[in-house]
Specification:
alpha/beta; Rossmann fold; 2 domains; 9 helices; binds N~5~-D-ornithyl-L-ornithine; Pyrrolysine biosynthesis protein PylD; PylD_N; NAD(P)-bd_dom_sf; Pyrrolys_PylD
Length: 259
């Protein structure tokens, strides 16, 4: 799994505003409205305690401060604990946090201590990016392509199947592919017999996973993947609406999902 770098997190709210404009134009809703529609919640006076975690590769520069900025952007109050890890967790609870945000190298959680709801970044990211793809207003098709069936891709594919979309998927890992076919009923996308999609949800940590054979003229590509799945020249050539952002959209979904 890709670890975020401090550079990924620079200028985050600016990147969010740019993506929000694309999302609004492509779906008719902004990210907060899409989160409200998916989770049926609205931000209230909850207080979010952000706990830096030192295990594994350690603290990522800009990570906790980015979470605080995101929390405040979506109308919640937040604070970063002075200490990391268990001491920080204790501090967050002692200082009245309603929701805890914390991440190690494997999992990133939001836990609402008042109502018991817990959300993971990988599931929420899969759900929200696939939801964005599924709301593309410049198509009547119900066909959507999912590229990558790891934790994020599987969650998104599952969400799209539940929403009644016709889900095609691809992943070089045959175990992942078979699991998604058996458990979700997705169809295998075969690069040898390509078809063109207006809605693509991409969830891999690799560049250039999207090729010309997969995309229709004027399509929406929604991807949390770093680096970008699309070669630059295809974005212009196919007039692609590209939603791609490293952290904010997934964290917004986590917060809304535990409210
Ligand atoms: O970026 C990550 C991992 N890829 C998990 C994300 C799950 N989708 N973790 C962030 C680690 C943050 C660090 N421990 C800190 O600064 O607290």
């Amino acid at each position: 799994m890709a670890l975020l770098t401090p550079e990924d997190l620079e200028d985050l709210l600016n990147k969010l505003n740019m993506n929000n404009n694309i999302i609004k134009e492509a779906t008719g809703m902004d990210i907060a409205q899409i989160c409200e529609a998916v989770y049926g919640t609205t931000p209230d006076s909850r207080k979010v305690g952000i706990v830096p975690i030192t295990s594994g590769n350690g603290i990522i520069g800009n990570f906790s401060s980015s979470l605080l900025a995101i929390t405040e952007y979506f109308g919640l109050e937040g604070f970063i604990t002075e200490h990391p890890d268990i001491t920080g967790y204790h501090q967050a609870v002692a200082n009245g946090a309603d929701i805890i945000l914390m991440a190690d190298d494997h999992i990133f959680v939001a836990h609402n201590l008042r109502n018991g709801k817990i959300a993971t970044n990988h599931v929420c990211t899969g759900v929200i990016y696939s939801e964005i793809a599924s709301r593309y207003k410049h198509t009547d098709s119900k066909d959507v392509l999912v590229i990558g069936l790891g934790r994020v891709g599987y969650a998104g594919a599952s969400h799209l199947v539940e929403k009644g979309f016709n889900v095609y998927a691809c992943d070089p890992n045959t175990d992942f592919m078979n699991k998604a076919i058996e458990e979700l009923g997705v169809k295998a996308f075969d690069i040898e017999s390509p078809r063109k999609f207006s809605m693509v949800f991409e969830a891999t940590p690799n560049a250039n996973t999207i090729s010309e054979g997969m995309i229709a003229e004027r399509c929406l590509v929604s991807t949390p993947g770093i680096p970008c799945a699309l070669p630059d020249e295809l974005v212009e050539k196919y007039d692609i609406d590209l939603v791609m952002e490293p952290l904010v959209i997934g964290v917004a979904a986590m917060l809304y999902s535990v409210l």
